[in-house]
């Protein structure tokens, strides 16, 4: 249903014109007819100027940054292409914001003069992003009135533009005191072959090898071109597991991103842990509790890979199946590098289920959003570095208290309260 096109002043003018015509007939005053015709003509001219003066052919938006983060601000720039043969009066504009976006998305829509038609108008404002997911921005609404204030027109311009909002990335402290064999590539040793004549392991020359790598002594001995063995480096792996079982989260976590605060805390912890391990020098895999990948593995030091994983996590929701027990099958009996497991509701039975995994990881970390009774203490007794996290808890502080035990020796519960 369209809004009434006349303002209070315009409606009053029409009513006054009607009354004037009625009184002109009753009283026989011809001048009242002139007044009525003049008022109606003014209102008609006002409506004509609004519908003929200006129109828009295109609306475009851009975001800075292109991908927003929960809790951060984003600048929205809107370009409006104006097309019209006549000048138009000033108005007001507003841009519709989807759930989880907050800001002053409104302002003055400037008037166009006689020589200013066929131009592009730029509008900008800032929004704060409070919910993860794909959030719509738009359409743009412009309300303009004629110079006399008799009529108004409401333009709905363009459509919706999706803004991707990723989980909050919290800076986490480094892993202190890890032994060398558990550390990332920043700590790992480099195995170099071909250093000197005693430990040289040459191989035959292949097309494309640099002539600088030819080892002439070995070539003379083998009567064929030989090159030094390439330097071999080993980058250790780490794994971050996010358990998405609906059994451990609120039902809203299954329906839409950003709806369950506890699940959002886990999403933030997942991304933040991956970023910390990547910067420590690990190649990091992000998995569900059944071993399914939640994104592409992120190589050591790959900041772009962290951003790509964040975009993939922007639309992630919970799932119905409870597959936490499958973690033991996923890792089998092999020893793995650092292992970070993030869960929602966590009880003593879950602690018993995960207990064997602690001995197979060089550094096992367990982060629970809703631990039950002494479940974290049971996990710590099995070897986990356990901590409680959640919407009302400081993730960075919980991580530091838990991982601060990395260099500890001896007994005691490793639980960050």
Please, could you describe this protein's structure?
- With 417 residues, the chain is an alpha/beta fold.
- It has 4 domains: 8-52, no CATH class; 53-166, Immunoglobulins (Immunoglobulin-like), CATH 2.60.40; 191-232, no CATH class; 234-416, Rossmann fold.
- It contains 10 helices and 18 strands.
- The strands form 4 sheets. Strands 2, 4, 6, 8, 9 and 10 form a 6-stranded mixed beta sheet that branches. It has a 6-stranded parallel beta sheet with strand order 14-13-15-16-17-18, sandwiched between helices. A 4-stranded antiparallel beta sheet has the order 1-3-7-5.
- Helix 8 (348-358) links the parallel strand 15 and strand 16.
- The two termini are 57 Å apart.
Rg over CA atoms, rounded to whole Å, is 34 Å
The description of the largest β-sheet is: 6 strands, mixed
Residue share in helices? 25-40%
Content-based structural category: alpha/beta
- Alpha-carbon distance between the termini? 57 Å
Number of helices: 10
Strand content: 25-35%
Outline:
The chain has helices at 8-27, 30-53, 216-222, 252-255, 261-280, 303-313, 327-331, 348-358, 375-381, 395-403; strands at 55-64, 68-69, 73-83, 91-97, 101-103, 106-109, 119-129, 133-145, 152-157, 161-166, 203-204, 226-227, 237-242, 283-287, 339-346, 364-371, 385-388, 415-416. By secondary structure, it is of the alpha/beta class.
């Amino acid at each position: 249903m369209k809004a009434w096109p006349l303002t209070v002043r315009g409606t009053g003018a029409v009513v006054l014109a009607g009354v004037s015509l009625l009184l002109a007939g009753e009283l026989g005053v011809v001048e009242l007819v002139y007044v009525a015709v003049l008022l109606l003509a003014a209102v008609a001219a006002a409506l004509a100027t609004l519908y003929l003066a200006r129109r828009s052919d295109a609306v475009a938006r851009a975001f800075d940054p292109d991908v927003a983060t929960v809790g951060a601000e984003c600048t929205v720039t809107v370009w409006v292409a104006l097309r019209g043969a006549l000048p138009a009066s000033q108005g007001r504009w507003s841009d519709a914001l989807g759930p989880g976006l907050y800001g002053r998305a409104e302002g003055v829509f400037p008037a166009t003069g006689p020589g200013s038609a066929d131009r592009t108008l730029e509008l900008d404002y800032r929004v704060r992003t409070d919910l993860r997911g794909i959030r719509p921005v738009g359409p743009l609404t412009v309300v303009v009135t004629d110079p006399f204030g008799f009529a108004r027109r409401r333009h709905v311009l363009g459509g919706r533009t999706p803004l991707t909002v990723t989980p909050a990335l919290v800076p986490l402290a480094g892993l202190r005191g890890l032994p060398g064999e558990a550390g990332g590539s920043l700590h790992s040793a480099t195995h170099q072959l071909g250093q000197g004549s005693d430990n040289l392991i040459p191989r035959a020359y292949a097309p494309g090898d640099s002539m600088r790598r030819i080892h002439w002594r070995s070539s003379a001995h083998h009567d064929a071109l030989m090159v030094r063995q390439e330097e071999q480096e080993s980058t250790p792996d780490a794994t971050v597991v996010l358990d998405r079982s609906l059994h451990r989260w609120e039902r809203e976590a299954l329906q839409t991103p950003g709806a369950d605060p506890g699940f959002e805390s886990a999403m933030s912890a997942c991304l933040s842990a991956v970023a910390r391990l990547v910067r420590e020098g690990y190649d990091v895999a992000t998995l569900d509790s059944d071993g399914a990948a939640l994104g592409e593995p992120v190589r050591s030091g790959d900041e772009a890979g962290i951003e790509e994983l964040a975009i993939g996590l922007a639309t992630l929701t919970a799932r119905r199946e409870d597959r936490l027990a499958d973690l033991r099958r996923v890792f089998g009996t092999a020893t793995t590098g650092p292992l970070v497991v993030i869960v929602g509701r966590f009880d003593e039975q879950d602690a018993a289920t995960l207990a064997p995994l602690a001995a197979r990881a060089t550094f096992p970390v367990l982060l629970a959003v809703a631990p039950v009774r002494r479940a974290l203490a049971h996990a710590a007794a099995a070897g986990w570095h356990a901590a409680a996290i959640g919407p009302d808890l400081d993730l960075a502080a919980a991580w530091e208290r838990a991982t601060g035990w990395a260099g500890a020796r001896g007994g005691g519960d490793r639980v960050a309260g």
